Amino acid sequence: MSAANSSPPGNCRFAIPKKGRLHEKVVAMLKGAGLEFRREPRLDVALCVGQPITLVFLPASDIAKYVGEGNVDIGITGLDVVKESMVEVKHIMDLGFGACKLCVQAPVVDKITNVEDLAGKRIVTSFPDLTREFFGPLDAKKGVTTSIKFVSGSVEAACGLGLADAVVDLVETGTTMKAAGLEIVADILSTQAILISNPHAKHGDLVDLIKRRIEGYITATKYVMIVYNVSSDLLAEAVKITPGKRSPTITTLDDGQSKSVSSLVLKKEVNDKMDQLHDAGATDILVLNISNSLM
Ligand SMILES: Nc1ncnc2c1ncn2[C@@H]1O[C@H](COP(=O)(O)OP(=O)(O)OP(=O)(O)O)[C@@H](O)[C@H]1O
Ligand SMILES: O=P(O)(O)OC[C@H]1O[C@H](OP(=O)(O)OP(=O)(O)O)[C@H](O)[C@@H]1O
């Protein structure tokens, strides 16, 4: 690492995926959480503006190992990577993106419905340890040994190439699996992106700050603020529709007859809530986006 590509001593080191499926979402989340940074082209470290935090850009599949071994203090990667790495890390929070499943998949033409039929056969995967853990009990039951081979990518091609009888790979939409003529025989793990830290991380305050900032951003992206007017006699019914996260804010309008209500509402429910408020007699219904929050 050159001097430009290193972290000032004493900074909290925070690893994020340098490319791949999680990279853009993590960068957008950090920006939304006010953890601003400027990354020079081709450098794998960047300093956060105004905080003693160094971002370290690493392959997603290596991040759990670096966090577990204390080379970095905190990181973001998939739960699948953490489980596969078999290292001890503190699972701070789920991040709500990067959701997919790790599945055993076999060629559709083979019509395999019972995963036990694959014990003793050839499996190709990027997750050899989780695969071994999954097939261990099946092997023991049948008295066979499943052959498990590692590949780092394009796992879905292995059956078509004659290298495997089945694969263990991630499935999100199922597009890759279907295109390769495969189908799910068994689920191994549901995964999503998570925030992790070294169990003995020295930078407790910064870890808390990062967690708080990210939580604020996640809340802000999940909720919108709904604001409406309603006559005092209809207020109780309207408030039942929008009880808020804690409770709604209610103020009296100048006319003395009506109330103005503002309340947090889940983004995915807002259109239904607007219809219900309209039917309950509310007027002047506005929906406002929240750019960040601290609850
Ligand atoms: N199709 C997907 N949908 C959602 N999340 C996924 C998907 N594929 C992978 N992930 C998540 O992203 C993590 C990184 O996967 P990715 O395939 O981007 O690996 P990579 O090694 O960083 O990149 P690359 O495949 O470009 O080398 C996975 O461990 C998983 O948690
Ligand atoms: O169910 P889908 O939506 O099709 O997504 C699943 C695919 O996404 C990932 O691969 P990626 O495209 O990241 O490339 P890789 O094979 O190089 O890991 C994963 O390994 C699957 O192959």
Automatic annotation (TrEMBL):
Alphabetized GO MF terms: ATP phosphoribosyltransferase activity; magnesium ion binding
Stretches assigned to the Histidine biosynthesis HisG C-terminal domain: 220-292
Name the record gives this protein: ATP phosphoribosyltransferase
Highest taxon of source: Eukaryota
Domain ATP phosphoribosyltransferase catalytic: 60-215
One GO term describing the cellular component: cytoplasm
Keyword Glycosyltransferase: yes
Listed PROSITE patterns: ATP_P_PHORIBOSYLTR
